[in-house]
Amino acid sequence: NMLILLIIKISRFARNDRKESYDTVSSRE
Q1: Please, which pLDDT band fits residue 11 given cuts at 50, 70 and 90?
Q2: How many secondary structure helices (H) and strands (E) does the chain include?
Q3: Mean per-residue pLDDT, 20-25
Q4: SS3 for 16?
Q5: What are the distances in angstroms from CA 2 to CA 7, 13, 20, 28?
Q6: For residue 29, is pLDDT > 80?
Q7: Local structure of 12: helix, strand or coil
Q8: 12 to each of 4, 6, 7, 24, 28, how far by Cα in Å?
């Protein structure tokens, strides 16, 4: 179960990785 949850989270972060990274940079700036 843990592996499945990790894969799901990774897949979600992979899709929104760019958006989140840009949001983080915008928040810092």
Answers
A1: confident
A2: 1, 0
A3: 62
A4: helix
A5: 9, 16, 23, 32
A6: no
A7: helix
A8: 12, 10, 9, 16, 23
